[in-house]
Each structure stands twice: as C-alpha cells, then as structure tokens.
C-alpha cells in the first residue's frame, strides 16, 4: 500500500519517531525522541510530516549493514533521490517497509535492517 489516508505515529520499542530539532540541513539522520511524536501521512510512497519526508536515500553503500533512515527537507529534496516506503496491513495497524526492510533503532537512531527483509 503506497498511501494511508489517516494520520499516524511510528513507535519502536515504545518510543516515537521525533521530528528533527531546529535543523537547517536538507537531510538529517532520523531518531526516536522524548519530544512530541512526528505525525505522519503516507502519500504515494512517501512518509510526510511537518514539511519533512522520512525515508532511505536512493544511493547507499553496498554492504548488508543496516541503512540509515533520514529526514529529508521536503522543499529542498528531489523525490527521485528518496526510496519509497510501503505499508503492509497487519491487523489493525501496518508494518512499514523501507525498500523491503523493517525499521530498527539501536541507540535511538533509525535504521533499515537489510538482514530482516520482510
């Protein structure tokens, strides 16, 4: 599924994905945080929240190590350089696939785990 009509939050280990704090960079490594949770919509494969897009970069290293998940500034980012995200229904919720890989958050930083491809 490439779109979800209602708004939602993303939680990992009972912590919510946080919006980047006061950052002027066009791309920021996403993290979990104690601040207000990011409220998302999924529109045509892009996770959007408050002018940012959450996703993996199209160009990544070729290892099988977990890949960073970034916040991309929606106004200054080329959508062609951001991999799309899919939502797979799972009961009353969804499992998000970042190019087929689930989210993990060791040390609170968001990564896509290529070794656990869904």
From TrEMBL:
InterPro entries: Inhibitor_I66. The lineage of its organism: Eukaryota, Fungi, Dikarya, Ascomycota, Pezizomycotina. Pfam families: Inhibitor_I66. This is Uncharacterized protein. It comes from Penicillium cosmopolitanum. It comes from the Eukaryota. One of its GO terms (molecular function) is serine-type endopeptidase inhibitor activity.
């Amino acid at each position: 599924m490439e779109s979800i009509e209602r708004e939602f939050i993303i939680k990992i280990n009972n912590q919510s994905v946080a919006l980047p704090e006061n950052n002027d960079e066009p791309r920021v490594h996403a993290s979990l945080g104690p601040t207000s949770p990011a409220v998302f919509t999924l529109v045509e494969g892009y996770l959007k929240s408050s002018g940012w897009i959450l996703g993996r970069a199209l160009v990544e290293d070729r290892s099988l190590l977990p890949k960073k998940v970034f916040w991309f500034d929606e106004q200054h980012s080329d959508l062609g350089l951001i991999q799309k995200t899919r939502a797979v229904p799972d009961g009353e919720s969804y499992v998000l696939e970042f190019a087929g890989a689930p989210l993990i958050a060791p040390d609170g930083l968001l990564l896509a785990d290529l070794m656990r491809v869904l």
